[in-house]
Amino acid sequence: MSAVILVTGGHGLVGSAIQHVINTEPVGSRFGRIGGERWVFVGSSDADLRDAKQTKDLFDRYKPTHVIHLAALVGGLFKNMKHNLSFLRDNTLINSNVLNAAHEHDVQKVISCLSTCVFPDAAQPPLDESKIHLGPPHKSNYGYAYAKRMIDVANHAYKEEFGCNFTAAIPTNIFGPHDNFDLEDSHVIPGLIHKCYLAKQNNTPFVVAGTGTPLRQFVYSHDLAKMFIWQLREYNDVEPVIFSVAEDEDISIRCVAEAIVKAVGFKGELKFDTSKADGQYRKPASNAKLMSLIGESFAFTPFDSALQDTVDWFVRNYDNARTGMEPVVDVRLIEEDDLTNIQLEEEVRVADRPVHEFDVVQKMPTSGVDFVVDFNMSTHLQVVPAV
């Protein structure tokens, strides 16, 4: 039977991992390509999913029978704290449009990607699928968290009213090739990989914020991709599933940093800045439901091996990876204000990206460049006037 699987957010960390697994696992195997399947990976250049018409047009174009919905407006802690409304509004629009288009096009199954931030801030560990709606999420990113929570609510409502087969996955801390390695706006592993890489290049200490004692569960993106493929083909319940290693396989930040030192080949000093806060010590999530369904034969990639693969990819692709340090072209300087801030015309683009309301453009006289653009209130990019 033919199937068209549409993957939104298909060029990011998880979408790229699904592409890798589908293309490298044996044809006809549990996680490899199956005859009659057509996989379509789309990104923001294919459609603005906040726009209902563009979303409908995308579904009209590809006529998917199945959808893995990964697309979302995401950002680091400070961006979330400052723009909770934008994260709530934009992600609610994206999710509503995708699910509505899937319903109107009689899509057989939709799997959406949630986040462990959906869980209540005060939830008692271990986190499991029954605790999503037991209290408010953490206040720092409540906009994003509530938008993700509402996917679960919508999935149940679509099933109740129309019989739709919509469900969701809840991954823990993901890492792997094609991650966001921005020093300030990334998750812990890619951020530390980039920091260690620069320390090696510059012969400086590798400094990690905090004591290194907090424990976290990390899931390799290629393993996560297999879980999504399993869920697509074998799971048919509306209730979400946590995608994670076991609770007792969490790893301290210190051990992560030491493993990164080894993987990068860093010979310098590893230091922990204990003046910086650690955050929550441990927030374990149970993968009991996942393992009871996917089967004991499913094996996670050993952490050190997955980390080495990620580091190797990052080093090979440094110039093209998402590091927050890309060269910038085609920017017009319109008005300079006291040499501290400049204003850009509304439709100016930086490295083929539009300058958004979130962005900050500043004079940086000590940085070695004339001006920088800060896309995420931390990512400094050189700005040059267009000729």
Q: Explain this structure to me?
A:
Helix 2 (52-62) runs parallel beside helix 4 and helix 6 (188-202) packs across helix 8 (253-264). The chain has 2 domains: 3-316, NAD(P)-binding Rossmann-like Domain (Rossmann fold), CATH 3.40.50.720; 335-383, no CATH class. It has helices at 13-24, 52-62, 77-82, 84-104, 142-162, 188-202, 221-234, 253-264, 288-294, 303-316, and strands at residues 3-8, 37-41, 66-69, 109-113, 166-171, 173-175, 206-209, 215-216, 218-220, 241-243, 251-252, 270-273, 335-337, 341-343, 349-350, 353-354, 360-363, 371-374, 380-383. The model is unreliable at 326-387 (pLDDT under 50). A hairpin with a 2-residue loop joins strand 15 (349-350) and strand 16. It is globular, with a radius of gyration of 21 Å. It contains 10 helices and 19 strands. With 387 residues, the chain is an alpha/beta fold. The strands form 7 sheets. It has a 6-stranded parallel sheet, with helices on both faces. It has a 3-stranded antiparallel sheet with strand order 17-18-19, with no helix packed on it.
